[in-house]
Amino acid sequence: MATPEDHGDPMTRTTVMKTAASLAAGLLLVSASPAVAQAKEALGPFGYGGVKLGMSAKTARATGKIVPKTNDGGCSGWDLKAHPTGENAVGMFISKKRGVAVIFAAKGMKTPQGIGLGSTTKQLKRAYPRLRTSASGYPYVSVEGNPKAYYSFLVSRGKVYEMALGLNTQDCVN
C-alpha cells in the first residue's frame, strides 16, 4: 500500500522532517543529561559537591553539606550529608593546617574520567595511563587540572574498592 510520502506529498514530508528533527533534539537532550549530571557530581578535580580541597573547616561547614564525626587532634573526620559513612568511618578529613585534605569516594561517585568504586584495574589504567604505585603498594595519580591534588585507589581482585581525592600536602592519612 502506498503512503503519502511515496507520492511526494510536501506537507507530509515536512511533518516527517519536523518530527525527525524533534526526536533528534530530544535524543541529544536525553543523552547529554547523564554527562551533565556526572560532570556536576564528579569527585575532583577540586572537590565534591561544593566542598573544595583546602577549605577551612569553618568554610566547609558553612556549605551546609558536611557533618562532623571525629576530632582527633590535627585532623577531624567529617561526612558529606548526601553520603553518610556509618559508625566507624568518615567521608573526609579536614586538617587544621591544610583545610579539607582528603575526600573519600562513596558509592556512585566518579572522577571526571569515569572511575568509581567497582571500576576494574583495566578501566583504571585506561583512564589514567600515568598511574603510579606508592611505596606502600597502592595506585595513585596526579589529578588532571589540579596540580595540587592526587587520586589514590585501593584495588582487590581487580576492582577499585576504595578511592580518595587528596591534597598533595595533606597531613591526615598515609
UniProtKB/TrEMBL annotation:
Q: Which UniProt keywords apply?
A: Signal
- Respond yes or no to whether keyword Signal is given for this record: yes
Signal sequence, start to end: 1-37
Under the heading InterPro entries, the entry gives: TAT_signal
Q: What name does the UniProt record give this protein?
A: Lipoprotein
Q: Which organism is it from?
A: Nonomuraea recticatena
